[in-house]
Amino acid sequence: MESEKQREMSNKASESFPMNAGDGPNSYTLNSSYQRGGLNIVKEMIDEAISEKLDIHVLSTSELFSIADLGCSTGPNTFTVVQNIIDAVKLKFQSHCIEFQVFFNDHVSNDFNTLFKLLPSSRTYFAGGQPGSFHGRLFPKASLHFVHSSYALHWLSVVPNEVVNESSPAYNKGRIHYGNAAKEVIDAYSAQFAKDFEAFLQARAQELVPGGLMALLLPGIPDDTPPSQSPFVRLFELMGLSLADMTRMRLVSEAQLDSFNLPVYNASLEELKALIGKNGRFSIERMEPVFRYAPTAETCTIHLRAGGMERVFSEYFGSEIMDEFFDRFAKKVAESSILADLTEQNSAELFVLLQRKSSTS
Amino acid sequence: MESEKQREMSNKASESFPMNAGDGPNSYTLNSSYQRGGLNIVKEMIDEAISEKLDIHVLSTSELFSIADLGCSTGPNTFTVVQNIIDAVKLKFQSHCIEFQVFFNDHVSNDFNTLFKLLPSSRTYFAGGQPGSFHGRLFPKASLHFVHSSYALHWLSVVPNEVVNESSPAYNKGRIHYGNAAKEVIDAYSAQFAKDFEAFLQARAQELVPGGLMALLLPGIPDDTPPSQSPFVRLFELMGLSLADMTRMRLVSEAQLDSFNLPVYNASLEELKALIGKNGRFSIERMEPVFRYAPTAETCTIHLRAGGMERVFSEYFGSEIMDEFFDRFAKKVAESSILADLTEQNSAELFVLLQRKSSTS
Known about the structure:
The structure is a homodimer of 361-residue chains.
Chain A: H1 2-12, H2 33-53, E1 64-70, H3 77-92, E2 99-106, H4 112-118, E3 126-131, E4 144-150, H5 183-207, E5 208-221, H6 231-248, H7 254-259, E6 267-268, H8 269-279, E7 282-290, H9 297-317, H10 322-335, H11 338-341, E8 349-356
Parallel strand pairs in A: 1-2, 1-4, 2-3, 4-5, 5-6
Antiparallel strand pairs in A: 5-8, 7-8
């Protein structure tokens, strides 16, 4: 039974884990202020990039500027992000009469109906939803001028096979993540991230015009830090411990716990740099960790819950135990020193600004 | 109360009446075979148009072919339509390596989540949803090569003001449509259709590339026929009579009935020709009525119900009386001679093929 679920989960691959739908109390729409905070911090960096790096020659004669937000969820953050980009582009190319087209992308199972209802009525761009996995092609060749993606690239397209294979040295029995796991488990996660990020870069290299920009923001880990010391990764460890409690309460079976692994990986700047270099189609224009305030245990739980975690856990363990699960998790976070331990150094959210090289080689 | 509802309805304008959502028993997804029948008939005409009228110069150097289906609903008909268009374009331009981008458009309140879930996994095009009213601009300038719209343009963006204004000579007391109404009522409907169709043509003239094609299919009326003799319009008359029955049962108040009018207009080829000529940006490449089989009363009811009518009636009169309403309507259709009276001459569904002129004048 469990292995069937696992297979199903692997098969559904990258179509599985959107943010919480609708606009109810646990929705992403109402619970994305933490993510918004990060976006405010990088706004200035995006403005600068557009002002300094973007050349008018990226536009074809049609004077159309196309923007894609990949992993946009249901709003409202995505609307702020694209408006900022548009404002900066207008400022840069003020003498031109540019039309803007914005593509909002997320998994097919994302709640696009809510996204569309929330579209600002005062918008000055043509808006569309482009459903599908950003690990593959989504757009025509050389059709985009700016790609944005925040809080999305740390989601893996699948759980690495090895970590749920009982006969593999990377079998991750009793855990749901790699934080305190064997090196083989960490390596399996890292390899899956590399595969996914390479596929992402390859698709975007085809879709972006030469000179086009790509701004990425993703939860990461400082260079040379073991995952067990990363606050983000430690939070996932507490999710695993909450589930372990619940096996003792017989709300979750041990087999279920053993076969579940969280498809999330926090990369380091070093790892990203190596993968971008290997792809070869982008120049790295800016790359740095971004410091975030430490949220309370409650806020932290609400935002993780709305931001994709409820969907992935409830698909596997059932929605009826989600309140119990997140209550336990919130208590563990409050009792732990994780949030107090957050520093500028270890709380790495990574900002990466890439430019599509002109050569097609 | 009623006039407030009416105002609300007018204000919501063209965002109000999508097909039935989801894939339940009354959904458009499961009940659109009548519409599919019409699309099969025009498939050949579209194939011919692409083969004979489409020139390779419509493509820019990027070799991208962009298609929009306006008023696409939730599928699956729209997928068949766009695949047919793509197959015909591939056949015509076989020596070229073209990428296809398809935009599925409907009102913001359309169920795009269902549409996206039903997208064929074997598709060979990039697919997006573009929400909004097709009576305004939806796409960048000169960005589309083929526009398709079927069973959508007969929906008016609003109920004409005059027909619900008690002091107007066009006040349509006791009726919900113009079939047996005073000339002033018919004129008010006709004027609203003209305004809407002009706005539609103006927007598409900007969005289509010169040489681009537009195929339209809409329920119409033969030239020089009074609306009271059109089978389509007579069906709406029966909907009004069903509601009148229900006022006697006190399920609907008379004031409600008086203030409601169905925002649907069946145009003639003559009317369309005049409006297209007035717009001036399109050449008429083909224009003819299409004959349809006569459905049974039951099929006819199911398809009208799923194809937008349930939404518009239930928003005004409440969803709880919809079964009663459509049961009464189906009986009236069965008792009437409308379906038996359908002939090649009077059952006009109108097919119109337009080409965007090269001059921008």
